[in-house]
Design goal:
It is built from 13 helices and 19 strands. The chain has about 450 residues and is an alpha/beta fold. The chain is elongated, with a radius of gyration of 26 Å. The structure holds zinc ion. Zinc ion binds next to loops.
């Protein structure tokens, strides 16, 4: 199997960390300036085209919302001191909050506060997407301190935010090839100052695109999509109704910078080529890892794997969503990211992509019923000479499974047969003009 370390500068992990640190303070949301600023920054690293989808457009069953702008937000006490200050952390205001301005008693303000009693020092990350709400997020310890001032204590509450017709932005980087067949790499880009979820996925995807862009040859066209979660993926799918004809393999990337082992979530199809290839690569790396089954929640794999599209898209993370204590809190900050984890995630992805490129896909040119194998000396009938039993099985599996989409690795996984045996059988069937390669696989090392 390919080795991957030799082609990446030794400081790749540090560079990914630096890019994440640069973008960390920006106030991303599903629309607006922070999201656009993030995508514009990515566009300085890779050839990224920004698509603007106007507010009010249809995105399958959803509608693109009004664009959100926020300038400032605070709660000030009677002395004018800001006791909650958006300038200290953009997590303090609920993402996509309505604008609001009033003088309120504590008892009126408190129902609009969010905190985590079980994690009293962390600020939760909350959103008001597709709801008309305003509110603040604070540490539970601070909430208790403010509560001690009494229910009649009055506060000046200000959220200088508005929703106006504008657009939702998503970015696409397409690395072309002669083939129309695509590999889709997707990372969500809507979380504000949170590091593992989602900046780690973004910086690893950017760096993977930079590496692939330098490969002298590639079979697949690579499409990297950076979009707000859910609504951005739906907007992309809505703009790409023929995706299922093009996308041969896909991966959703998130949470790739913490210290947990890699976790692969299978596609809905369970045993698509991408599933076989990622599980094989994870096994071969001989490092702790997990492979989990598809569930229709999590990140945007659930959109790509919805029955109308049913794309062969799995998901690679380290910790899974909701699984690590810092998830969706202020503790998911840069201290959670490790350069070696980012680099290890990238190395695994490079190995996955190389394996995809090297996997040969065949098509049975006589797919209607079984071709007459005996006449060609390919059938070991009763008492007759022919291929050895294992080779015979490989011949039958190949004829049955070679639909022009399944690679040898997927057939190896399904049949339990050795890859080398399948290669020999495929060669035999090619000599007899029963199989033809629809993707010859790139046998030369690409970089
Ligand atoms: Zn999230």
């Amino acid at each position: 199997m390919s080795t991957t370390k030799e082609t990446r500068p030794h400081d790749t992990g540090e560079r990914m960390l630096a890019l994440a640190a640069e973008m960390f303070p920006w106030h991303r949301s599903i629309t607006g300036a922070g999201l656009r600023q993030t995508l514009e920054r990515i566009a300085t690293e890779i050839p990224l085209k920004l698509n603007e989808v106007p507010s009010g457009s249809t995105a399958l069953d959803f509608e693109i919302p009004l664009e959100w702008t926020i300038r400032d937000a605070y709660v000030a006490d009677s002395s004018g001191r800001r006791v909650i200050d958006y300038r200290a952390s953009n997590l303090h205001v609920i993402n996509d909050s309505q604008g609001f301005r009033s003088l309120l008693a504590w008892s009126e303000l408190e129902p609009h506060l969010h905190s985590l009693p079980e994690k009293p020092d962390w600020i939760p990350y909350r959103t008001a997407y597709f709801r008309q709400e305003w509110g603040f997020c604070i540490s539970h310890r601070q909430r208790m301190q403010l509560a001690q001032r009494g229910p009649q204590e009055r506060y000046e509450v200000s959220i200088d935010a508005e929703h106006q017709p504008g657009s939702l932005t998503y970015g696409e980087c397409v690395l072309g090839s002669e083939s129309e067949e695509e590999v889709l790499i997707h990372a969500h880009a809507c979380h504000p100052s949170l590091a593992n979820d989602n900046l780690s996925g973004i910086v690893v995807a950017v760096t993977l695109a930079q590496l692939i862009a330098h490969w002298p040859r590639r079979h697949y066209r690579y499409r990297f999509v950076f979009a707000p979660a859910t609504i951005g993926a739906l907007a992309w799918l809505s703009d790409n109704p023929n995706a299922s004809q093009r996308v041969r393999h896909g991966l959703v990337l998130a949470q790739l910078g913490d210290s947990a082992p890699l976790t692969y979530k299978r596609s809905q199809r369970h045993s698509a080529s991408i599933d076989s290839i990622v599980t094989r690569v994870l096994r071969e790396r001989q490092q702790p890892h997990r492979v989990i089954d598809f569930q229709p929640w999590g990140y945007d794999e659930r959109q790509f794997c919805s029955p109308g599209f049913d794309l062969p898209v799995g998901r690679l993370t380290r910790s899974a969503d909701g699984e690590y204590p810092e998830y969706h809190t202020s503790a998911d900050n840069l201290s959670l990211l490790r350069a070696d984890s980012l680099d290890d995630s990238l190395a695994c992805l490079v190995q996955i992509v190389r394996t995809l490129e090297e996997d040969v896909v065949y098509r049975n040119v006589s797919p209607y019923g079984e071709p007459q194998l005996g006449r060609r000396g390919l059938y070991a009938g009763f008492g007759r000479t022919g291929p050895a039993p294992q080779l015979q099985k490989a011949v039958l599996w190949l004829l049955n499974q070679s639909n022009g989409r399944r690679g040898l690795l997927e057939i190896a996984e399904r049949s339990g047969l050795d890859l080398e045996l399948l290669r020999r059988a495929a060669e035999l069937l090619r000599e007899h003009k029963l199989l033809e390669a629809s993707n010859t696989g790139l046998q030369t090392r690409a970089c």
